[in-house]
Design brief:
- Helices cover 37% and strands 13% of the residues.
- The longest helix has 22 residues, at 372-393.
- The protein has helices at residues 8-15, 18-26, 32-50, 59-74, 117-124, 167-174, 192-195, 232-242, 257-269, 297-309, 324-343, 352-355, 358-367, 372-393, 439-444, 473-484, 488-491, and strands at 53-54, 86-87, 128-129, 132-133, 145-146, 150-151, 181-185, 200-203, 224-229, 279-283, 313-317, 398-402, 418-421, 424-427, 448-455, 461-467.
- It has 504 residues and is of the alpha+beta class.
- Helix 3 runs antiparallel to helix 4 (59-74), helix 11 (324-343) crosses helix 13 and helix 11 packs across helix 14 (372-393).
- It has one domain: Amidase signature (AS) enzymes (Alpha-Beta Complex).
- The strands form five sheets. It has an eight-stranded mixed β-sheet with strand order 7-9-8-15-16-12-10-11, with helices on both faces. A two-stranded antiparallel ribbon has the order 1-4. A two-stranded parallel sheet has the order 2-3.
- Strand 5 and strand 6 form a beta hairpin.
- It contains 17 helices and 16 strands.
Length: 504
């Protein structure tokens, strides 16, 4: 058992941006062993309280791996920009030789024989897997709890939810337990937890980050993997690592890793990120009062929009010309069909029904009454909605919406049963209805980034979604880089750890 040797340098190592950390490792001013020890010390100190990282590998094994990486550097060999980085993929991602539970007791001892493509790309860039980040069971619902590992707590208030499903990843970043993190996003899982952790999360376009292996690769286009980070430049660099065409993923964008990475390099070399051409932002707010929102959320987003205006944004109120309830109905159809396809077969496992969360069983049940004709009708609605988004992009470069409809809620509440708005209380009819605000980017397959917009009076973080044009990641990142220069006061608010006795 190693005891934390928290010298000031340890704290400095873990608070570095990922790009600064990479430079320090490659300049040999920090060894991979020092970096690994610093992160493991911090995890040892904070993770027992917050429960962000699970299935942690023992320190001796990780230090041996780090020593080998130091030897490589001493011979002038680098695997890539993540050489020596501690990395903990989300527990939905397959990790060869490392337990992958999907947050389900049915997969308690599941050790995959191969990596998910995104994991293999991080390993190829030099990342060292140290464990996994916690996720809700099967990634369902935006609250990170499961019966295998328990609940992940909000970095800014451990009585509150971390959001989800990339809750462990977002909290690990907010607490400096990882330099960068991967997540996945189906219904806001890269955006809602990032908003609840005061960090950045980017859901890429369909096909930007190919998903493989996949049991079904032609229709399952709602879930994508993507980067999360403390800075936009780190986010961009990790996106470059994860991106690039793969023939195994039929929907992957036909651009090589090298080509996209060089576009990212060019973006990161822009010396004054705040100096960008003027751009137009369409503020969708609560979709003309269709979406119930807790008090104060739209106000925080407007504060964010005011900062965007400082870097040349022309902000206009805008609205959908399509009934959002039609979009929701089509979304439910798609979601139920894809989830039932993914989870239904698990009911064949012994005692499965008793071990699956009710939301998973509900999703499977919903799909039973959906015909092929219903599904194709929902796909036609999705197409009409995509065309409606394209219409909005004729007038705007990006569209803005809050990243959540409620502030981080009590960690023990599975999901908010209602939303208290300034116009009264609106009941929620499903476990994910309170997250309706995130379905628009997902359903249209558009790139979208969560950017922080500050805090509530109670000190809880919030974020705003900026949705980009089809395959428009580079412009979206350019805008986010400019925005980041204007919000250092919000980004500098770090979790106060002194109030938790177990973390001192």
């Amino acid at each position: 058992m190693h005891h934390a040797h928290s010298s000031p340098s340890t704290l400095n190592i873990t608070s570095l941006s990922a790009l600064a950390l990479s430079s320090a490792i490659h300049e040999r001013s920090l060894s991979c062993v020092e970096v690994m020890n610093a992160y493991l010390d911090r995890i040892e100190r904070l993770n027992p309280t917050f429960n962000a990282i699970v299935s942690l590998i023992d320190r001796d094994t990780l230090i041996k791996t780090s020593q080998a990486l130091d030897v490589e550097l001493s011979k002038g060999q680098s695997r890539g920009w993540m050489h020596g980085f501690p990395c903990a993929p989300k527990d939905l991602a397959l990790t060869q030789g490392l337990t992958t539970t999907l947050g389900s007791p049915l997969f308690l001892n599941h050790v995959p024989s191969e990596d998910t493509l995104s994991v293999s790309r991080m390993r190829a860039s030099g990342a060292v897997l140290i464990g996994k980040t916690n996720t809700p069971e099967f990634g369902l619902g935006s609250n990170t709890y499961n019966t295998v590992f328990g609940t992940t707590l909000n970095a800014y208030n451990p009585k509150k939810t971390a959001g989800g499903s990339s809750g462990g990843a977002a909290v690990a970043l907010a607490l400096d337990l990882l330099p960068v993190a991967d997540g996945s996003d189906y219904m806001g899982s890269l955006r809602n937890p990032a908003a609840y952790a005061n960090v950045f999360g980017l859901r890429p376009s369909i096909g930007r980050v190919p998903s493989w292996p996949a049991g079904e690769a032609f229709i399952s286009t709602l879930g994508v993997e993507g980067p999360m980070a403390k800075t936009v430049d780190d986010l961009a660099r990790l996106l470059a690592t994860l991106s690039g065409v793969s023939p195994k993923a039929p929907s992957s964008i036909a651009q090589s890793h090298a080509d996209f990475a060089s576009e990212i390099d060019q973006l990161l070399r822009a010396p004054e990120p705040q100096k960008i051409p003027p751009f137009k932002v369409g503020w969708l707010a609560d979709l003309s009062r269709y979406l119930p929102m807790e008090r104060g959320i739209k106000e925080r987003c407007k504060a964010g929009l005011a900062r965007l205006a400082q870097v040349g944004a022309d902000i206009e109120d805008t609205s959908l010309q399509m009934d959002p309830s039609r979009i929701w109905k089509a979304w439910l159809t798609w979601r139920a069909v894809l989830n039932a396809h993914r989870l239904g077969p698990l009911l064949q496992l012994p005692n499965a029904r008793a071990q699956m969360k009710p939301e998973a069983l509900w999703e499977i049940e919903q799909a039973r009454s959906i015909s092929a004709q219903d599904f194709m009708g929902a796909s036609a609605t999705r197409t009409a909605f995509y065309n409606e988004m394209l219409r909005l992009f004729e007038h705007h470069d990006v569209l803005a919406l809050p990243s959540a409809q409620v502030w981080p809620f009590d960690k023990d509440l599975h999901w908010p049963p209602s939303i208290d708005t300034s116009r009264g209380t609106r009941p929620m009819d499903t476990y994910h209805r309170w997250m309706e605000v995130v379905i628009y980017a997902t359903f249209a397959g558009l790139p979208v980034i969560n950017v922080p917009v500050g805090f509530s009076e109670a000190g809880l973080p919030m974020g705003m979604q900026l949705i980009g044009k089809p395959h428009g990641e580079i412009q979206l990142l350019q805008i986010a880089r400019a925005y980041e220069t204007q919000i250092s006061d919000w980004l500098s608010v770090k979790p106060t750890l002194a109030s938790h006795p177990s973390t001192t």
